[in-house]
């Protein structure tokens, strides 16, 4: 009887471990850029934000969305799905002011620092106003620590992030004819 219990426990452990590996694979998104792909591992310390990004990616909402604000030595911001692409009436002058059709999310601040490759959620002055926009850090930004939700980190393809077209410093990084996320998928 004890051997049967041990065999069952071993099978249960194996099944649990296998499902954990499968679940872990879904904790990534891949962004296809003009210069190659970028794989982002989503942070388990910000589960609501990670789930939102996966939801929008799976629905194709991030496809062809611009990097509307890109500041040399700081970050590249994207994810304003409200304005869609050029065929759907994308408005470059308004990019960065919207989100998605979903409600804003409550902040999920953590002790994860903003380093090169960190992915954070963009928001307005209200800490609970993050929605769909996110940014990828070109360099450390300690002044953001504890002020913005860290949703993930780039685990491969940072060299492709480095090639994203920069914006106008005099205009808060606004980009004319911006680079775009060609396609965003859930998984590696």
From TrEMBL:
<dbReference type="InterPro" id="IPR020892">
    <property type="entry name" value="Cyclophilin-type_PPIase_CS"/>
</dbReference>
<dbReference type="Pfam" id="PF00160">
    <property type="entry name" value="Pro_isomerase"/>
</dbReference>
<keyword id="KW-0697">Rotamase</keyword>
<feature type="signal peptide">
    <location>
        <begin position="1"/>
        <end position="25"/>
    </location>
</feature>
<feature type="domain" description="PPIase cyclophilin-type">
    <location>
        <begin position="25"/>
        <end position="185"/>
    </location>
</feature>
<dbReference type="InterPro" id="IPR002130">
    <property type="entry name" value="Cyclophilin-type_PPIase_dom"/>
</dbReference>
<protein>
    <recommendedName>
        <fullName>Peptidyl-prolyl cis-trans isomerase</fullName>
        <ecNumber>5.2.1.8</ecNumber>
    </recommendedName>
</protein>
<comment type="function">
    <text>PPIases accelerate the folding of proteins. It catalyzes the cis-trans isomerization of proline imidic peptide bonds in oligopeptides.</text>
</comment>
<keyword id="KW-0413">Isomerase</keyword>
<dbReference type="InterPro" id="IPR029000">
    <property type="entry name" value="Cyclophilin-like_dom_sf"/>
</dbReference>
<dbReference type="InterPro" id="IPR044666">
    <property type="entry name" value="Cyclophilin_A-like"/>
</dbReference>
<dbReference type="GO" id="GO:0006457">
    <property type="term" value="P:protein folding"/>
</dbReference>
<dbReference type="GO" id="GO:0003755">
    <property type="term" value="F:peptidyl-prolyl cis-trans isomerase activity"/>
</dbReference>
<comment type="similarity">
    <text>Belongs to the cyclophilin-type PPIase family.</text>
</comment>
<dbReference type="InterPro" id="IPR024936">
    <property type="entry name" value="Cyclophilin-type_PPIase"/>
</dbReference>
<keyword id="KW-0732">Signal</keyword>
């Amino acid at each position: 009887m004890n051997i049967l219990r041990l065999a069952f426990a071993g099978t249960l452990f194996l099944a649990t471990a296998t499902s954990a590996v499968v679940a872990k694979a879904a904790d990534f998104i891949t962004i296809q850029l003009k210069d190659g792909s970028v794989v982002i591992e989503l942070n388990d310390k910000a589960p609501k934000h990670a789930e939102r990004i996966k939801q929008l990616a799976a629905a194709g909402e991030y496809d062809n969305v611009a990097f509307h604000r890109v500041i040399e030595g700081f970050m590249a911001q994207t994810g304003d799905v409200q304005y869609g692409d050029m065929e759907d009436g994308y408005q470059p002058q308004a990019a960065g002011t919207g989100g998605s059709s979903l409600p804003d999310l409550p902040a999920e601040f953590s002790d994860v620092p903003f380093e090169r490759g960190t992915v954070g959620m963009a928001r307005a002055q209200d800490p609970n106003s993050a929605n769909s926009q996110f940014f990828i850090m070109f360099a450390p930004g300690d002044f953001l620590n504890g002020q913005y939700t860290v949703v993930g980190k780039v685990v491969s393809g940072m060299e492709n992030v480095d090639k994203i077209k920069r914006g106008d410093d005099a205009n808060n990084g606004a980009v004319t004819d911006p680079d775009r996320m060609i396609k965003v998928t859930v998984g590696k």
